[in-house]
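Hey, I was hoping to borrow your eyes for a little while. There's a protein on my desk that I can't quite get my head around. The fold is given in discrete form, as structure tokens running alongside the sequence. I'd be grateful if you could look everything over and explain what you see. Here's the protein in full, and shout if anything looks odd to you:
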Amino acid sequence: MKNLKQHKNISFKKPLLLMALLTCFTLCSKAQLNPFQSMYFQNRYLINPAMAGLDQGLNINLGYRQQWSPFPGSPKSQTLTADYQATDRVGVGLNVTDDQSGLLRQTRAMGTYAYHLPLGEHNQKLNFGLSLGVNDGRIDVDKIVGDETDEQIARYNQAKPYVDGDFGIAYTSDNLFLEGAIPNLKAAFFKNSIERIDVDRVEFFAAASYKIYISSGYTDLLIEPLTAYRKVKGAKDIVDAGFNFTMSNYFISLQAIYHSNQSTGLGLVFDQRAYAFNFTYNLETGKLSGYTAGAFELGLKLKLFRK
């Protein structure tokens, strides 16, 4: 009887573990499909290595994103980027991300080299960027409620960190931004070489925005409409559309971006000469709206050594 009871406990724990993992994957996938909103305006380097060193001086960005959900282990992400304009044509950068969702943790650290080719007046440039670094994923065994010796868990954690990279290109001027990026180069070109979960990964990103300056008797206004496209593995392609509205005299920006996977991001930015702070709330309007109250994002930018 004792052996039979132990067998039932083990048999019961494995389905629970599988259900927990599947739930984590679902919520984590949704978090990945709604990325940091700061990558569209405040920190374009976060998604596109071609943007490293485009602005003067050293720019350090810290970001934190947490899903508002009662579900234990709800997804959260942390980012650290630093990019520096070494010369008028060369930029370098560091891009570190850490994503956690339930039992899963993915850490990525990339170094970047970017080249900015001047094309003419109005600050026109053609920008190229390449990032290389390390990507690593783990299951946190200490958080498992169930059979910790499961073969699939051991196999996942035995996989070694691997070399990865990103490539980006962009055309920029005082008003116009056109950009495209291919993240996760190893997964893109060596599809059989990764033994990790490979779903909801962005395979291609493209965006276009245009700055419209408006002057009034009280303040200078800037409106920057944006549209973006993301090709996602294992999911429908996503179209993003929104705007950034800036009141320069008050150092405040208001943002709104709608994602075609049925979510909307609303943001507020305080932008000073030496630093900037942003807060964003992402509202879910699709099928998962009953499981999460959306997500919030906090960001801090330090602008150092500017002329």
